[in-house]
Records
---
Amino acid sequence: MFNASIVLYNTPFEEVELVVATLRQSALVQKILLLDNSPKADARFTKLPITYIFNDKNLGYGASHNIALRQSLQEKMPYHLVLNADIQFDADILAKMKHFMDKNVHIGLLMPKVFYPDGKIQYLCKLLPTPWDLLARRFLPKSWIRRRTERFELRASGYNRLINAPYLSGCFMLLRTEALEKVGLFDERFFMYPEDIDLTRRIHRHYATCFYPDVSVIHAHTQGSYKNRKLLWIHLINMAKYFNKWGWLCDSERRKINAETLKSINIQ
């Protein structure tokens, strides 16, 4: 059994209703927590088979999920599922992911293969970023940095095998609560964007953090910071906080982890 949590901000009701219905198809999901950061509460959510928590302000992505994660820790749940509302999947993947985690107790975090709605793969299994990786990906033409991007996103792996990667997307994370007890929850200094990098990295120090291609989900992945200047500014500020925490140029742990990751999948 495990709990699941979804953070909302002016999220369409129909989108949430769909993902809740999918989660409810699995007997493994005990509690679904909706953490609503919207300006106004939406009474329709209270009629769904979930626990609705209206925060009355925008706490940010990680801080909101932490409300649910603390409940899972208090309830002694072995796992907790963090996911976005704009996700579609077959409920049976949850049993497959849990079974894989049960058999591999060294894994602290598991992420499935993720596709766009048009069937193209999302390359969400990555190395730990340098400032250059993120700035170049955001501001330079893709053709200029194609080789570096492919290396950063571990594309040479083929995305068809298990990969122990130090940076996995927060769009769909099955977390071992034992790992959270050891390393802590999402860092609430990050309002949004680098919280998944930071948490994966901290778990990766003590457990495997794995991309698991045997199951898959569909993720709309709107990339809001590429379309909205306010979100871009939020992204830049929070990435600066991330590099202030871990190091901008001098980050020996990043170099070591990235080198080990590339070696493990035979990428130079």
---
Amino acid sequence: MKLKYFISFFALVALLASCSDDDSMTLLDEIQVSSSYVSIDEAGGSNTITLNAKEAWSFDAEELPAWLTVTPMNGGAGETQVTFSAPAAPDGRTTVLHVKCADKTQTINVIQGLSTVSEATCAEVIAGPESKTYRVTGTVDRIVNTTYGNWYLVDETGEVYIYGTLDAKGQTKNFLSLGLEVGDIVTVEGPKTLYNGTVELVDVTVINIQKSLVKVEGYDPEDATIPLEGGTVAINLSCKTNNGISVEIPDEAKDWLGIVSVSGGAEPVVIFRAPANTGGDRNATVVFKTTDDKGKEYTAQATIYQKGSIVAATVAEFLAAEIGDTQYRMTGVITELYTADKQGKSFTIRDYSGSVLVYRAEGFIESGAKVGDVVTVVGKRGAYNGNPQMVSGVFEELVHVVTPMTIDEFLDQEDNPNVYYMLTGTITEIANPTYGNVYIEDETNSVYVYGTYPGWGATGDNRKNWLSTADIVVGDKLSVIGVKSTYNGTPQLANGIYFSHEKAE
């Protein structure tokens, strides 16, 4: 893999200019830092700056890359020593962090070693470390923002999202000046980041543009999406040679995507067909090729989508799935709100098979759901820093509102198989260790729990021997969810779902 130094003379001049401009940034009235540029040796180590704030302050935790540790991440009014630490990075890396205090934001640039640029394929970018700068060549597949320059670059190995494109003078918000079009072959340079499970190259510099002799001009339907029940999509092209075009469908899509027809001429149209889809969402990037009179090959690419069924999954099945566009539906108990002060749409759900973070599910806040409630969510399998999570999620249903209460209050409730309660009490007796039938008591009363199952959705053998598996014994404090019922005149909490427990001291 070829490497070159990324900091050129011009970049150094820009850096010095930025340092000069930064003098005003360090003199905000609400928050001041001794330096807004933090340097860490490429062999690894730490560096400390002084932060002085008039009110409570905090770093944006979402911006913190996996390789960097900042201590502390927040604090109160007054002077604080903030330390930045990182392990060795022979290729160098950089990142930008923001500290918020009151309504002001202070920028801090962290630089480790001398950044280098690696020439890479899309697949190598996806597999490579964050904050490293890459040079990659590929085809402009689709453009989604023409102000900042957000678009997708693809090559034969995969796809990378470009988030921000600098113009010829290194400025932002001037993407149209570059004249980039879908189908152009472009070489770009930029640092990698990971946002909400998506690999991005940020604020890239365009090194070279090779205008394609074959381009995608449009789609019918416009979103290039075939419905769940099957159908066709037409792709309109322009071809500036007299040598015609060829079409390639990737091997992994040949079992569901086929070509209906290909017309010739300067404005060819290729029609694709797909049958009904019984699985999840799927897509395929097809390639159109032509050659000039000297035999040089030019390509254009287009991605065809087909809607799929929503796949019902346990948390374990979701975690085992590949990252992609397939939609999954999961039901479980909310066990935690994820940094609720900043990410009010994010939460963790658990069923009998495991737990997973649901990142920013639309409709969650409006639902009024809280910790302990049983909910259903739909979304895609994603990951952040290697940690699985549901992304692009939608809060589909508040299945059961779960009301915490004392045992005495619970015993006053009417029997109802559709109303769920959470009780917390100390285990005084284990009547059936196989199914987890126990007696619990709190300061108000005691009650029989008919079944303590490992989580929502457990059936059959998955319900058995949960107490021993979790090392739950007499004397432990147990929180359990269930419904009020009566058996032989005795009230009980039926079909108990484990929520949490505390070991006896």
---
Amino acid sequence: MSLRLDGATLSCRDVVGVARNRTRVELDPTAEARLQRIRTVVDGLVATGQVVYGLTTGVGDLRTTRIAPEHVKQLQRNLLMSHAVGVGPALPEDVVRAAMVARVNQFAQGSSGVRPQIARALIDLLNADVCPRIPEKGSLGASGDLAPSAHMGLVLIGEGEVMRDGQVQPGGDALRAAGLQPVDLDAKDGLAILNGTHFMAGAAALLVADAERVLKTADVVLAMSVEALRASRTPFDARIHAARPHPGQMASAARVWQLTEGSGIVESHALCDRVQDAYSIRCAPQVHGASADAIAYLKQIVEVDLNAGTDNPMVFADGPSVLSGGNFHGQPLALGLDFAGLALAEIGSIAERRLFRLLTGHLSELPPFLTRHSGLDSGYMLLQYAAVALVSENQVLATPASIHSLSTSADQEDDNSMGWTAALKARQILANVETILALEALAAAQGIDLLAPLTPAPATNAAHDVIRDRVPTLEHDRVLEPEIRAATELVHSGALARVVDALASSR
């Protein structure tokens, strides 16, 4: 089954399918006709020698420099060569593929003026699994994601590098091995490859999918901690949340309520004298829910940009007209990504507080550091140290990138969104939160073991079993790092989030 790109209906889920599951891509016939119709406008402008930014002029502060007709094609090739200044390690393949499918769909929207051949060439790379090697850093998130896009474009013309089976190969060799030919660039083609929000949008689409999984996982791990700490279910009662009906808050509370339903541990302390639990338990739906709503906001922004015209100049058939504007500016995505980074960082912060409570005997009423041999054994004491290190790092990373800007191109480009920086930071924050949730899950599973013979709810017991399939109960001190990696993989793979999915499907 192929994904048909029409310039209007690409979703975050579709991007994940292409980026990670190798879904094949094709260009919708109506979109291809739209591309060809708009392209005739560009060809007419070039043929008549009109002055058009990036077609018959230089770019940036060189916008007033005229380009002779015989040099129009060379200009497009030069743009890719000169803009390929990325630095740092290579981006993961899924991020590159996400950007590629986003760029093709933005072309299909119909205001780029790029030749249909360029869209088809990018599709061929995707379907042949030829992934350009693109350095991680260098985009300012305005004028488009220029540097990474240039590295992507180099492979189209038989230059640059690709990643194949973990090895770096010359782009031309990779094209030949895949049975593909380099493309010859014409007017607007190189500039169209460069201008656009496709790297920000592609990375953000993957982040949305990953964040949705992390948020489900956070509710599962929270439910396990509710059990281990013998906390009350009352704060998750639907009536409380209906009185303040934020969508994410209501959904989080409902999940935890369902996850803890039928718990023998909860029943064992129904008449205890503990009046209220700490905020990290009692207010968790409000915190988790606010983060979920922030991710929902990012998803809305991303799915607009995935189906948007983000080129410059933009070409319109009515007129016909070529209009210079700023749709390549990444501010909407930059703000959304910064918001998402803050939201995810808070998931890690509140999880660390629950972990602290689980490990602190006078707060948890469990053996100190969750070991029966406190003193001789340190138990899980150091799990919280690792969590604090990651929470602290996230607090630094959560500083918004979108409030920073430095001028470029001789002050012609004097406000940059830094949206790509926001995307990179949000990805790292999410990875840190996955580990923090894994640390909490290890501690919560140990706490549940220490409450035996009391039994948790069926759903939280299922989550406990997911952990125990990979990590045994801690009886005495042992090296924990491999177990932390195993638990983190359970979070990253969605194994714990699937407990929520199974619960939903059973109802």
